[in-house]
Amino acid sequence: MYYQKRFDGHVHSDCSPRGVHSMMSLCEQAVNRGLMGFAVTDCCDCDRFDEMQFSERIRESAYCVYKARSVFNDSLIISNGIEVGQPLDNIGKADKIIKNFPFDVVLASVKKYPDGRKISDINYSELSENEIIKLMETYYKHLLEMSNWENFDVLSQLTLPMRYVNSESAPYFSIRHCDDIIEMILKKLAEDGKALEVNTSALRGKLNMILPPVRYLRMFRELGGKFVTIGSGSHSCGSLGADLGEGI
Omega of the bond prior to 212 within 30 degrees of 0, cis? Predict the structure, then answer.
């Protein structure tokens, strides 16, 4: 189904480490694809804040948003956002950067396990079922702790591990054993009036589904959750606005 009013709530420009295209290029593509707008949510990973010069990157991102708004003012909504990764790893820097910039939207995510290993770097086919279960439990306990952080609007990528655990190299693995912890996370979001993100990036991969799965959206709704955003997780013009219709 084609939706006319499509807004991509999760987009990275070349101010992010893995971002490919400039803000202006993204805006031109958004207009060409008939999007009503998008949120620029460039990365700010607090575990590598100084190493990757995220303070400078976010300052440049905000500047590029304001410049793009002056050019595309009548044809595109451009929200100034940020994706704060691992905020609890450097809570002082996380709070400071949120305070220093007038963000329209703040996404929060966790892309590493508490032991420092990146979720995307592990070959899960080499792990036993019990080892994966322990990883998932530590991840969601940490995510629950992060959900108590006040300075974010949207929890991004709630079920990120599913993108990598469930692949051709590893058998299907359910995260339902973590449902009690996930329920506490979703309940906290609902109570605080925060949003849950639907991310369409896994529709472009081997998993071929939206994340989180619908069952967790239903759980969020039943717990009193009212706000859901949808985003492509794009790092380039090619995937900007991708699969928003299917995700909706």
Answer: yes
Token pair belonging to 1? 């189904």
- Helix-helix angle 129-146:179-191, to 10 degrees: 10
Residues 6+ apart with CB under 8 A from 131: none
Phi first, then psi: what are they for 38, rounded to 5°? -160, 160
The Cβ of residue 32 has, within 10 Å, a number of other Cβ atoms equal to 11
Cα distances from 178 to residues 30, 181, 206, in angstroms, run 37, 5, 23
Angstrom distances, CA of residue 106 to CA of 76, 174, 197? 20, 29, 11
CA distance 164 to 78: 31
Over residues 152-202, the pLDDT tens digits come to 999 999 999 988 887 554 456 788 999 999 999 999 999 999 999 999 998
| C-alpha span between 222 and 231 (Å, rounded) | 22
C-alpha 242/C-alpha 204 separation (Å) is: 8
- As a whole number of angstroms, the distance between CA 40 and CA 9 comes to 8
Return d(Cα 82, Cα 103) in angstroms, integer. Answer: 7
